[in-house]
């Protein structure tokens, strides 16, 4: 098993091998799934998966969310390996559905299924049985999306308005084709359409269909990636079955080695400070994940603000824009079924193909978490230009008690305050105001989260004079890998009104940071050998009129404390 997955093209130690193999090995969004990573017959895997599934009928549940690294407010799979979010949608009853690339029988990618979880608030997830199985032992269900066919355009739903259609890539050694499957029970179980595939262009590198409904033209619109041609193909359909190629978007922005997991989404434009909607903007975002070949190594997601007229997407410019300034935000997907007056909501895979299959969470029987759900909109300010603003979706369902609240002028701070919470997860808000006039060159903010005995720490900070923010996971020792780089930074300026803010969600082995209310954000996994138990925050050299306000709150675990749950995966 390890020797086969050792041929994993993105593993640094095998990079030279990889170059030789690049032309031979199918590189998919689900990555190495076409290689039988188990080294055993898929039949066996399938049997195991099916057996596991019957846990829904009474065999003890297999999930256990108690490990040192197990995020408590982020979604992670009950066990085994997870990658891309798939089929995200909100149904008519207000339930959010998260499907995900899932290997139910291994801790590395392979044997891809669609795992499934549901939630009422995007934080408290209930694990559901696997939703989509590969139809044959030598195929895999790769990434894709889901829609609610409320008008029965497909004809699959003679008696209901809540029918769900999943659109996904079926991968095999000979091709990647686009298939559909429909669900009469609100997205819990699916039937493959007998007219599959719905798109077959005789390619082994053609995947990750994402479908939206385009109101103006009353058509379904699909974006799907010709991964190694750097082409996002746009198809339209009246019924989700017959698809017509209407345009290609190609060779713009960052190319890397492959393009994957495209998303096309209408995006409101707002004023960042007031949050007010700027009317009549009719903007879209086309997001494209790139792997390998991201600027920081491995995988990353870029996006293009632009316009879409029903057939053609036109980017506003050719600037490369990334969703994240760290390394662990990939294959993000936007929910279908979010009402027009709500901002689009997205969830991304919080890992990087460089080390996703190596991280030490395997010792707890699982690998990979999702980002927190994000609320998104576009802004266009003189200092940032067009930017996709991304903030945690309403955290109230998980916010716990206030641990620290403090405000000071100019220099000051908090020294080793306890962040011991039941969950091991905290939310931090920092707001600095009064940053007007000239700022001394030494003005800075530093935040250090430390372990109690092992002298490990996670730190971040901001220089108010050179406007650089950094996030450093280098002083954690639970995981060593040359690709697991440490220190990420970005440029961000105080706002015109003299304020600068940051917030962070710190959740055992993952931190997400949001600067200036989400104008910049970072997602980073980290592995300290002990829990982080204290925090120090200090400012130095700030002008005398500056005020720093800090609020630290506990986050409450969304998982039950024991390893005994109702999960049936
Ligand atoms: C459903 O039909 C209505 C009325 O024709 C139309 O306005 C709407 O866009 C359609 N929506 C979908 C998802 O088919
Ligand atoms: C849905 O489509 C099927 C197939 O075209 C048709 O038989 C059925 O009557 C339709 N149902 C509704 C409510 O439109
Ligand atoms: C709707 O029709 C489908 C297909 O005929 C059937 O499988 C399903 O049970 C029906 N659902 C309801 C709620 O009647
Ligand atoms: C599909 O592509 C393969 C490899 O490029 C080629 O050998 C084969 O002839 C193609 N099949 C069709 C039906 O075009
Ligand atoms: C779109 O891109 C695909 C993949 O490279 C190519 O086969 C096709 O000819 C292109 N179509 C158009 C209209 O450019
Ligand atoms: C959309 O824009 C493209 C490129 O500018 C153009 O060729 C096409 O005709 C437009 N379609 C519509 C429906 O306006
Ligand atoms: C749950 O996982 C933790 C961490 O891996 C382990 O120590 C514990 O024994 C597990 N509990 C059960 C009930 O399996
Ligand atoms: C805070 O705690 C860490 C770890 O226990 C320790 O290394 C550091 O010196 C402490 N800092 C202060 C200011 O007490
Ligand atoms: C991390 O990056 C910041 C900003 O570039 C820099 O100031 C800091 O010294 C770096 N930290 C380490 C440990 O290299
Ligand atoms: C675990 O869950 C099962 C099924 O709900 C229940 O019967 C059993 O008592 C639970 N065990 C513990 C230790 O909580």
From TrEMBL:
Protein source organism: Polyporus arcularius HHB13444
CDD domains: GH32_Inu-like (cd18622)
One Pfam entry name: Glyco_hydro_32C
Protein name: Glycoside hydrolase family 32 protein
Keyword annotations of the record: Glycosidase, Hydrolase
InterPro entries documented for this protein: ConA-like_dom_sf, Glyco_hydro_32, Glyco_hydro_32_AS, Glyco_hydro_32_C, Glyco_hydro_32_N, Glyco_hydro_beta-prop_sf
Family in the record: Belongs to the glycosyl hydrolase 32 family.
Residue ranges of every copy of the Glycosyl hydrolase family 32 C-terminal domain listed in the record: 428-540
Domain Glycosyl hydrolase family 32 N-terminal: 74-378
């Amino acid at each position: 098993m390890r020797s086969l997955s050792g041929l994993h093209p993105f593993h640094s130690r095998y990079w030279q091998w990889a170059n030789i193999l690049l032309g031979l090995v199918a590189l998919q969004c689900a990555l190495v799934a076409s290689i039988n990573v188990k080294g055993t017959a898929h039949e066996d895997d399938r049997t195991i998966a099916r057996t596991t599934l019957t846990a829904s009928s009474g065999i003890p549940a297999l999930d256990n969310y108690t490990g040192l690294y197990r995020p408590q407010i982020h979604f992670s799979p009950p066990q085994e390996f997870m990658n891309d979010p798939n089929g995200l949608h909100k149904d008519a009853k207000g339930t959010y559905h998260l499907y995900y690339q899932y290997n139910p029988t291994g801790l590395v990618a392979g044997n891809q299924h669609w795992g499934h979880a549901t939630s009422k608030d995007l934080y408290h997830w209930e694990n559901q049985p696997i939703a989509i199985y590969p139809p044959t032992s030598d195929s895999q269900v790769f990434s894709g999306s889901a829609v609610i066919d409320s008008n029965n355009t497909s004809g699959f739903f003679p008696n209901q308005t809540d029918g769900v259609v999943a659109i996904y890539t079926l991968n095999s050694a000979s091709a990647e084709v686009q298939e559909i499957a429909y669900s009469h029970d609100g997205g819990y179980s699916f039937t493959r359409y007998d007219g599959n595939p719905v798109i077959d262009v005789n390619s082994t590198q053609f995947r990750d269909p994402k479908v939206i409904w385009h109101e103006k033209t009353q058509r379904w619109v699909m974006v799907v990636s010709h991964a190694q041609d750097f082409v996002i193909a746009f198809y339209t359909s009246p019924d989700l079955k017959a698809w017509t190629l209407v345009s290609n978007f190609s060779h713009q922005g960052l190319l890397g080695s492959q393009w994957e997991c495209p998303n096309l989404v209408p995006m409101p434009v707002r004023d960042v400070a007031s949050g007010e909607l700027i009317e009549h903007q009719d903007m879209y975002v086309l997001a494209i994940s790139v792997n390998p070949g991201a600027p920081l190594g491995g995988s990353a997601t870029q996006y293009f603000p632009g316009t879409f007229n029903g057939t053609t997407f036109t980017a506003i410019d050719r600037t490369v824009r990334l969703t994240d300034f760290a390394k662990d935000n990939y294959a993000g997907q936007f929910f279908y079924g979010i009402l027009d007056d709500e901002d689009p909501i997205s969830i991304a895979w919080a890992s990087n193909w460089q080390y996703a299959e190596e991280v030490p969470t395997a010792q707890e029987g699982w690998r990979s978490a999702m980002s927190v759900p994000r609320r998104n909109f576009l802004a266009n300010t003189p200092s940032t230009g067009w930017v996709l603003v991304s903030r945690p979706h309403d955290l109230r369902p998980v916010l716990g008690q206030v641990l620290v609240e403090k405000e000071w002028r100019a220099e000051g701070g908090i020294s080793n305050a306890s962040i011991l919470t039941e969950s091991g997860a905290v939310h931090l808000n920092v707001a600095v105001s009064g940053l007007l006039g000239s700022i001394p060159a030494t003005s800075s903010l530093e935040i250090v989260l430390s372990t109690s005995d092992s002298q490990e720490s996670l730190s971040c900070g901001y220089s108010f004079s050179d406007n650089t923010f950094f996030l450093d996971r280098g002083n954690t020792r639970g995981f060593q890998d040359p690709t697991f780089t440490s220190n990420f930074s970005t440029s961000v300026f105080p706002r015109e009104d003299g304020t600068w803010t940051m917030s962070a969600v710190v959740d055992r082995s993952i931190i997400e940071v949001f600067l200036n209310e989400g104008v910049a954000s970072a997602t980073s996994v980290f592995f300290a050998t002990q829990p982080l138990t204290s925090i120090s925050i200090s400012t130095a050299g700030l002008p005398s009129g500056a005020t720093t306000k800090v609020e630290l709150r506990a986050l409450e675990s969304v998982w039950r404390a024991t390893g005994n749950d109702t999960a049936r995966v």
